[in-house]
Amino acid sequence: MPERPKMWVIEWLSGGTPQSLANFNYFNGANPAGELTISNNTIFGTTENGGANGDGEIFSIPINGGDPNILASFDGSDGATPMGRMTLFGNTLYGTTSKGGAYGYGEIFSIPIAGGVPTVLESFNLADGAGPRGGLLVIGNMLYGDAGGGGDYGDGDIFAVPISGGDPVILASFDAADGFQPCDDLLLLGNTIYGTTSFGPGGGGTVFSVTVPEPSSTVLLTVGACIALKRRRF
Fold this sequence. Notes:
Elements: E1 30-32, E2 37-39, E3 42-49, E4 57-62, E5 69-73, E6 87-89, E7 92-97, E8 107-112, E9 119-123, E10 130-132, E11 137-139, E12 142-149, E13 157-162, E14 169-173, E15 180-182, E16 187-189, E17 192-199, E18 206-211, E19 216-222, E20 230-233
Antiparallel strand pairs: 1-3, 2-3, 3-4, 4-5, 6-7, 7-8, 8-9, 10-12, 11-12, 12-13, 13-14, 15-17, 16-17, 17-18, 18-19, 19-20
């Protein structure tokens, strides 16, 4: 019997006018910058500024829109200027602030999904990183992320922190030769973390990989220049 012809159905998204789900007025937050997290028809996010103390906040809204529910407002001592995506693990949200904390270089925090006072899991002190802006990965009982500055060479690093809090383990420190200022979310494939840096030897940034838990870094591509393969152990 001859093979029946295959029929393909192509559906186009028509788009339309954006629907405003929530409006910020500084008092309930201002300048959201990080990606959103969605769970059980609720959207979770952060604002860089505004809130009760002006240092940013954590909010939630229904997925179909509504007034922002302020879960926490930062006051500097417990962090300031959150800019990265929060990670939901169980009933807890984990995230970073790019400023504030004990030393002013940012922190890692956790907060119950229902809201409350943020728990500071780690405050960065420049030597172990500064200015984290990306979202965190949960791998086992560890949180993995990147800091845009600080580390061994002052150009940022990749770190791991126990999910219950504690001193960071530096997996890799960046320098001008293999990229610097990582500031975006990391991706995990197998036992390898992938990410990007804003700047690099070609002037346009890099794509890198770091093996977990081996503290090594490989530059896979120099953006805006030629392909470069470079491995560096820290």
